[in-house]
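Recap from last week: sequence in, structure out.
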Amino acid sequence: MSRTANSSSAQQPFVVYRAQLEQARQRGRDLLRQGAGGLQIATAIAESIEQLLLQIIQDQFQELSAAEQKLIQQNCSILVIGGSGRGLMAPFSDVDMLFLYRNQVVDEFSNFIGNVVRNCWDAGLKLGHSVRTIADSIKMARTEPEFATAMIEARSIWGDEHLAEQLIRSYYRHVILFRRRIFFEQCVAARWEERKQHGGAVMQLEPDIKRSPGGLRDIHLLRWTGYARYGTSNLDMLRLDGRINSRDVRTLKNARDYLLKVRIQLHYEAGKQQDLFTKDSQLWMAEQRQIEGTNGQRPVEILMQEYFRHSKAVAEITERFIKAHRPLPFLSRAYDFLMTHRSDGILKIAPDHLDVVPKYRSEVCNNLEEILKLFDTASLYGISIAPDLLDAIREAALKLPPTITNRSIDLFRAIMGRSTQLGPTLRIMSETGILNLLIPYMQHAYCLLQFNQYHSYTVDEHTFRAIEAAELFADDDSALGSSYRNIEDKDLLNLAILLHDIGKGYGEDHSKMGAMIATDTAVRLGLREDEQKLLVFLVLEHLTMAHLAFRRDISDPDILFEFSQKVGSPEKLRMLYVLTAADITAVGPGVFTDWKSELLADLYERTMLLLGGKHSRYHRDQRLARVKQLVRNHLDLPQIPEYEEDPDSWFTELFNSFSPHYLLVNSSERIAADIKILRDLPPDQIVVEGEFEPDTGTVNYHVIAPAMYSQACFHRMVSVFTSRRMEIISAQITTSASGGVVDSFHVIDHDFVDEVPLSQIEKIEEEIRKAVKGESDARTMFLSNQRFHESTELSGEYELGRVEIDNHSSKRCTIIDVISNDRTGLLYIISRAISRMGLSVVMAKISTHLDQVVDVFYVIDEHEQKIVDEERLQQIRQKLESTLHDFELEGYKRYQRV
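Predicted structure tokens:
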């Protein structure tokens, strides 16, 4: 036989194996296409892959001599463990195997298994395997929780079944039976750590189907701990033994089927193992499942609300099971027994939980007032409610009447007035259905998704986090903490936080819709008329302070006066301030930055002074006169009576040429230094000063340029920061009457975790000088830094940006708000377009957002006037929207043509 023929013959089994693997995966695809459930598909795939494994093993076994076959068959066993042992696999899952042997066949078994493993890999199977004796396996299981839990699912598929049974018995005896509590805690600790590594929250918007909280691994954990505690991992057996109720088992099985199907679809979409449910995958799956949107929810939001309802239920049931069945050391049980006391002959109050005497349990659980007393008492003592009591409340809540008594309302308001433990209490009230009974609208917010770049959580999770954020303000040594502590009606504040986003998902302005819901809720809870008005005001205006602080010039007395008139009282201002800060904090980790906190506190303090009757301090003319005098003193100019001619007229001319915003927000020392530099600055020189500010983690770049560089100066400076992928937090733009430029940029340099080194600051200073002088162009900087490939393309269902023009808030300027998805380089493209339309940017507030990224530009025309012509305003809007939409579609590729 020729060498070519031998080679072809040798390769033939691998071709057959690969074909079998593809058939196994195709079987799953066919079932998926036919509408089969996740459990059915996962079982079918596992069965087919197991048949392939057996074929590979048997083919290799047949190549052994008769003596070798006998020796291996009597002393070796092959087991599938983990997901393979459960018989549930996704199409590209790893195959988890344990090759078990007795010591007398080490060499023979090693050669045999080496060939089996090699053939599996050649066939396209990805193995997670180990080769061990019984002793090795037990030792490994006692020290490695991941292997120990995989062994719970161990099942022999080939070889000596007695050897496999011996391992399983030994495993149970040495790893589980006499160390139940240790094993239980190892399982829980390992899973909690895994949860932390995969987001730590059920409601994260890009979950890992398997490992995130509420994922498939939580169901595994419940089964593992059930096995550790009661010797069985079967849900139905646990139900029959009374360890878990029928409703929870049914919920878990439905969720498992749903999550398995999602995971299988993700694998098929990616053509590989893929468990991360990305936003792009969510969009694709919503389209594949032909989900129809509503007026208030997009298809993808409906899909993810369904997903989160399953995952949240899984997380809650698992956590309850762990808490209810966790084995406690004898001393802990004895301590609890000795320290537990009764209250009113009904409640049992232990050091860490609250329970009800068994004979009164039915009476308590079937009365809303009594249930609320439980929550109120638990909140007062800072302890939890016993897990089995919560189960009873959960069942009873389904049958309680929808009407609520005055006593129930009083108890609910007492709970809402707590300054500690309110967040956890409301979460439990939500999980048991009691919160939905009190405020039916809360059911709408349950697992409601906001599909955008800016929120990290669902509406209900965001709301509970906002409540918890407000509680933490109590210990804050700041204006925010002082405001929180001085609020008298904390129950109304917390109710407003609970309802502030309740209007989302209806297809209307969520603040207005939320105000309508707040009105209904106020009536349901019997609030007085003044309380109703306060609640509705807080919900309706919960975005107002953020809008003003981040998007408007709060040194403008007209804006402050209008806002103070709208608020009307210090108490309302304190509540709105705390609500705003809590809302921003709960958007996602790191959103409420020191910078935003400072801006919000500034607006609060200015408005509080107005509400306190101290108008004179913020009367602009008087403040400007005071600033002028301070600046004059810093420049050491002579004191000139108002009726005499000013010999230093250059100073008055320069001072008056600056915008009131610049003069009122900068220190007199800074203004004096800028005026002195401008007076002495040669016509062809540019001064750039960079300084790192450790309190905010930003670098302030202060740029002073003569009139000859004023045209297009702003967007040229922006091009430097954009090319370096720096985040511009704010920009203050000032052009004097003579055309001199004084600009300040606060930026975050993401190349440095801690302090930005002086060498980097000096490098950026030089780049700014070159850019302003026109010695370098944007295209060269963008391409030389080569960073824009890091940006991802936006999915088609992201909301396109928009441009809003406000000609009301400022007497001097037209305000342009650019509301968009956050893209590297957006600010440069927009600022260049503004410059090319002949507009000058007087002030800018950059990349500050609550629900969206918003860049705000205060602009004037060629004659330094507000734009009032409606036709030109329309042209400006259309031009900017066209520029914005083109950029959103092309992203960083536009830099190659700048």
